[in-house]
Design a protein that fits this description.
13 helices, 2 domains, 16 strands, ten-stranded mixed beta sheet, binds glyoxylic acid, binds manganese (II) ion
Length: 418
Amino acid sequence: MTRTTGASSNKTSTTTATVTGLMSDIAGTGTDPLRGGYTRPVYSTAELDLRTWFIDQATKRGLSVETDRNGAIWAWWDIPGGNRSNSIVTGSHLDSVPGGGPFDGPLGVAAALAAVDILKARSPIPKRPLAIAVFPEEEGSRFGVACLGSRLLTGAIDPNKARNLRDPDGNTFADIAMANALDPRYIGRDDQLLGQIGAFVELHVEQGRGLIDLDQPVAIASSILGHGRWRLSIHGQGNHAGTTLMADRNDPMVAASRVVVTIRDAARNQPHARATVGRLQPVPSGTNVIASRVDFWLDVRHPEDAITASLVEAIHHEARLIAADEGCTVELTEESLSPTVHFDPGLQKQLQLALPEAPILDTGAGHDAGVLAALVPTAMVFVRNPSGISHSPEEHVVDEDAELGAQALAEALATLMN
Ligand code: GLV
Ligand code: MN
Ligand code: MN
């Protein structure tokens, strides 16, 4: 831990907040009038405002708030004597995808705060310390690498690579970290902090239809689908839209469009695979300009990591052929890779004892819990999303389920803390 960003206090709030009340506090932060929903990239004004809100909420509860060397916030409920070994950690993230829903990330943070209230209102006082962690850049929407904070904490990304990641405006992560009082020289694996985590439990909105189909409000996670991100750059010849005959073009946009369809077809032909191109940038991007280059990003997911690798190789091969056919060239660069994660079976059993009604569900979405799972026992709790839609403004949780989620998280934490 490097900095204390909120005062520890002996005064503990006596009221129990609702998740709905906490979520409504932040409902106006980071709304996106153009895309709809919320745009809260890491270290944007919106995300910084959410961090301030969290620090304020944690401080009100008497938690001791610190920011670690990688920019994650930790709010500690210490036990007498202050020993933090074997702590139980919960939490999630406050950053969002562009035009995302309100619940992806903040629900886990609000539920953690509400769970602390529920536990503080009970006796006896838990035997193990608890921390609420808020991880930065979970979505990778600004610097391209998902779960950047937890990857840095666990050493899953080289700090030098992280320092040199660039946002769409060309700022490096090191520049933005420095502007936000985080010294980029000290980012990276933090064994001291990792050594204090006995278990991590993340509550998250479900991002698919599993709980709708089972007619249940809350589930326990079994696994996260392996996933990765690759950047494809197709280079052609920039030129004039009016004077360049159709036969004389080396148009990377046409090549990219053909590759996007190939990607869809390749994933359709591979059982259980998912492949997406959700972001595409022509350079220089003018209506009457044939692009000189098109960059686009590929997200591929499959339960078997070897199949993900072979699918990406097949896509790369097809992209080379298509690019050549259009008089262009293509480069493919891996930006991040996360193997399939099976959550800790022992911890999963403990959660099942605490939540006997909850079904077990897997997920296709990535989470900081998946990254931490490489080094600490990790579990997740999902809360029903009646739209079945996520990474979109239509993502939803009904008030009653939000409170049931916090109750379920409190039960799970109580089991682990005693
Ligand atoms: C994050 O939500 C992801 O699955 O990409
Ligand atoms: Mn999330
Ligand atoms: Mn997400």
